[in-house]
């Protein structure tokens, strides 16, 4: 009886104040059109007392009264349905999804968003990328330094965790179950339980904090970009599923060493600027970020094996192959990601090769074969101002690989971009999935 009561006490459920109407988003699987939709992550949702409008989470703090511990918090609180346009600046039309950076709603100001593609009202769309190609069109012309329009895949549970964790009653419909290779501890709910125990507000983010636990899983960053820089990056974890970590085992986010978790936080990135080509991506360059561009990513392999990740761009009626590396420290040129490239790149930059240590492409194939959920997001960086993507980082370094993009090291400060670039946006459209060399034009 006690166990049953504890299960009920800590369960994550949904409120009834706002109906959850998912924005519709169509996409193509092979030659067939698919009617899908998107849902916003549970972390962005209003969390309040059941049957009331009193906040359980306000600003970057859990209520001492309603959430003195996780079990009591779960008993008292629910997450609410979303007003996508009015609260989050999210709009969908046909095959296009637009995310606005800062939205001043009726009750709050929202910054950034993270959404997932749904198969149906209760299930995320699952993609097996091995031997396949994923293509989309993106417009980053309105994304300045310091912002990241990120489209990527993570090994989340298709139902958001409801089958695995009985405490999770909200599920994929309400955007639960997030995980990634950074083992984030800023999630308000993990495994259907509030992450309120040990919660500490972030000093430089009025909306976020960090709890005791984090949520780890493998991550395939197909696209991280603004108008000045871009990269694509696989990350792997030791476990082939979502796993909750505790404290220092979550790595840097949990107060431990950056490489102390069971995941590879750095990944193996292909960033054209960082790899020596400074004329490839940007306004007026070979891939002109003043115009929309079709992005094609191919995972070469079969079964549970991936050997290479290739990239192409299509713009102005032309297919543009990915740039080649231009570094004296690399004995050969590369324009794709593979185990060979990753080892060579890490050696050239003097970086910790945690990607290889956690299994490299062998582990990448194993996790991709399990199927991944598509994430579409827009965010700023309260840790290092996005300098790891678009500027020199570490800022005082002149070692190879530190120069990652053309943005100033003083750029990307969240307070600045949130006030000066509030109307920034990214538009994702025309998602296509199919056999290699079949989805682009």
TrEMBL record:
Q: Where is the signal peptide?
A: 1-18
Reactions catalysed, semicolon-separated, are: Hydrolysis of (1->4)-beta-D-glucosidic linkages in cellulose and cellotetraose, releasing cellobiose from the non-reducing ends of the chains
Q: Tell me the classification of the organism that encodes this protein.
A: Eukaryota, environmental samples
Give the originating organism: uncultured symbiotic protist of Neotermes koshunensis
Return the EC number. 3.2.1.91
Task: Give the protein's recorded name.
Answer: cellulose 1,4-beta-cellobiosidase (non-reducing end)
Keyword check for Nucleotide-binding: no
A GO term (biological process) for this protein?
cellulose catabolic process
By its UniProt entry, which Pfam families does this protein fall under?
Glyco_hydro_7
> What keywords sit in the KW lines?
Carbohydrate metabolism, Cellulose degradation, Glycosidase, Hydrolase, Polysaccharide degradation, Signal
Q: Broadest EC class?
A: hydrolase
């Amino acid at each position: 009886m006690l166990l049953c009561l504890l299960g009920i006490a800590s369960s994550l459920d949904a409120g009834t104040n706002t109906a959850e109407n998912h924005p519709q988003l169509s996409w193509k699987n092979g030659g067939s059109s698919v009617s899908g939709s998107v849902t916003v992550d549970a972390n962005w949702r209003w969390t309040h007392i059941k049957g009331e409008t009193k906040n359980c989470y306000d600003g970057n703090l859990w209520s001492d009264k309603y959430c003195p511990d996780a079990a009591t918090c779960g008993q008292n609180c629910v997450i609410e349905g979303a007003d996508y346009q009015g609260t989050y600046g999210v709009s969908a039309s046909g095959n296009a999804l637009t995310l606005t950076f800062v939205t001043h709603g009726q009750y709050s100001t929202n910054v950034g968003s993270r959404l997932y593609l749904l198969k149906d009202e209760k299930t995320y769309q699952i993609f097996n990328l091995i031997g396949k190609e994923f293509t989309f069109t993106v417009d980053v012309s309105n994304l300045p330094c310091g912002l990241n329009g990120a489209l990527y895949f993570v090994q989340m549970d298709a139902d958001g965790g409801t089958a695995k964790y009985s405490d999770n009653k909200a599920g994929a419909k309400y955007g639960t179950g997030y995980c990634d290779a950074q083992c984030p501890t800023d999630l308000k709910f993990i495994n259907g339980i509030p992450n309120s125990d040990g919660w500490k507000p972030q000093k430089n983010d009025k909306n976020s904090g960090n709890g005791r636990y984090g949520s780890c899983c493998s991550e395939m960053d197909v696209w991280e970009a603004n108008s000045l820089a871009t990269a694509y990056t696989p990350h792997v974890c030791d476990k082939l599923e979502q796993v909750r970590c505790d404290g220092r085992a979550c790595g840097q986010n949990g107060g431990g060493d950056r490489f102390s978790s069971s995941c590879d936080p750095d990944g193996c990135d292909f960033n054209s600027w960082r790899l020596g080509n400074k004329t490839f991506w940007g306004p007026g360059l070979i891939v002109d970020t003043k115009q929309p561009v079709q992005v094609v990513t191919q995972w070469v392999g079969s079964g549970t094996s991936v050997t290479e990740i290739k990239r192409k761009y299509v713009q102005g009626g032309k297919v543009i192959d990915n740039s080649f590396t231009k570094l004296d420290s690399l004995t050969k040129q590369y324009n794709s990601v593979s185990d060979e490239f990753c080892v060579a790149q890490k050696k050239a930059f003097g970086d910790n090769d945690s990607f290889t240590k956690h299994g490299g492409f062998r582990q990448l194939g194993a996790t991709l074969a399990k199927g991944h959920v598509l994430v579409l997001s827009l965010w700023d960086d309260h840790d290092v101002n996005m300098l790891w993507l678009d500027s020199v980082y570490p800022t005082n370094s002149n070692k190879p690989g530190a120069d990652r993009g053309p943005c100033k090291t003083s750029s990307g400060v969240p307070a600045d971009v949130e006030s000066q670039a509030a109307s920034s946006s990214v538009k994702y459209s025309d998602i296509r999935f199919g056999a290699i060399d079949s989805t682009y034009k």
